[in-house]
Write the structure tokens for this entry.
Amino acid sequence: MSTIYWITTLAISGFLLLSSYTYFFSESTINGFRDLGFPDFFRIQLAVLKAIAVIVLLTPKIPLYVKEWAYAGVALFLITALVAHIAHQDSIMIMILLLVLFAILAISRHTIYI
């Protein structure tokens, strides 16, 4: 696998781990999640699924079709987050960050086969 794959995969994995951590331990993130209208059980589910996605994406021996599901899940999360933040009328910077992360995810996914 290429250097670009590992750089983009590590970047998206770092974001997912940080996000997962804040879903559990950051009061501002927890309150922000509630402000968006999501229940606590969904926040916890997302945190766990993000951690699982990191394991799947970073483990080389995992079959590619399993990695494809992880990419799909992360893409769905990013799209859902974008829609939620637009609906909540949050800062444009959050939306730009989500679009940049989506681009990084797409590059990681594309370079997995190179």
